[in-house]
Amino acid sequence: MASRRLRAFKRWMTSNNIQHTDALHFTDDELAGISVFTTRHLHEGDLIATIPKQSCLTIKTSGASELIEAVGLEGSFGLSVAIIQTVKEDKALVHEDWKDCILPLIHSEEFALDPKFFRVEDYFAAKSLVASRSFQIDDYHGEGMVPLADLFNHKTGAEDVHFTSVESDDSDDGLSDDDNSNGDELKTQTFLTKEDESMANVVDHSSSDVPESPSQDLTDNPLVLEMVLVKDVKAGVEVFNTYGSMGNAALLHRYGFTELDNPYDIVNIDMELVVKWSLTLVTSRQSRARISLWRKLSYSGCISQNSEYFEISPDGEPQLELLTLLYVILLPEETYTKLDLKLATSRELANSSAPDLSHKHKLMCSEISDLSNKMLLTKDVCKALLSLADMRESLYGTGSLEADIEDLGRCDCISERKLYHSLVLRVSERRIIQKLKCYTEKRMKSLGKSHLLKKLKS
What b/e sequence results for 198-224 when a residue is b if at least 16 CB atoms lie within 10 Å of its CB, and e otherwise? Predict the structure, then answer.
């Protein structure tokens, strides 16, 4: 029997003309949340649901649309206000957003907002919903909250459904007047959704029978989102969407869950960790100077929320930018000085108005930067990678990887959900660090054999 909230949601869908095939069966488990299964075999290309855009919560459909547009809020900021009116990331950053964008609205006499509904904690909650459950609908609506869509759970690289939107240049269809699309254009969008575990209460409306398939009147309609199967789905199995190709760290941060054997898992090594390692070899001044030289060569790490880091691939291969940085830091003082001088001279040539000198600068920078992974993986760089791997692994404490794997095996993914997913992430990252060590040690052995062969030949 369907749960109370599921029955209420189905009635609400009916009242808002959200249609889906009767081959979809919704289950609601107290611990696992809501999932979508099939009752019969479905085929690739089958239209399994239609969702009117007007039923989605967007800036345009919100009761706060005039307020949001009047102050020029867009994207996730505007949608967050819409959610607050209608009903974690780094809290310091979110608080700053709230202070800059929401607080002025509260203090404005023009809009007469009730402050008790726009507190910073309300913005935190709304921002979290937008980050994990919002969909890009079309150019007119922008981001929005799409009913039915986030009932489909995620599976990396194995989605069964795509959501599509037919856009038209007809100004009477509810799209913006400046829509520039020529004729009807089908835009396929893989929406980011979240495993539904706590759907809000919805309005109770009278129910009606669910059709065998969505009404033909709603297909190819620019006012409707269509849910189409991208492959055959057998009867009795769960229907999955995908939130994108991302590793467990990103899944846990944004959606609150992980996947075993996620092929997109990576490990980050922060720039701060690299700097800390460098200070065991050189002075603080020398470390800053060499990192500066590395940047002059047009290198940088990955940037996210004012943090710089380097990625280790699922196979344990370090990012090229990390290898280059370690190589520059480990240069002998004399070589470093010559390289720094050479680069400074080449920059002076580049600033010259003479075309031939500018060309020489480009060639020189290309020569300096054009080093392969194999060339960069010297014996000293390999030792540096092993040190960084040990430093990164030390962040997990003194327990072994084997002990973490045993703990994961004993953990129940339903009743101990938070512990389970944290252990999955911990194990997957430690396995990648182990692969990084194997990758580096293999290269060191190769260098040793090469050195031995050269010695024998001489």
Answer: ebeebeeeeeeeeeebbeeebeebbbb
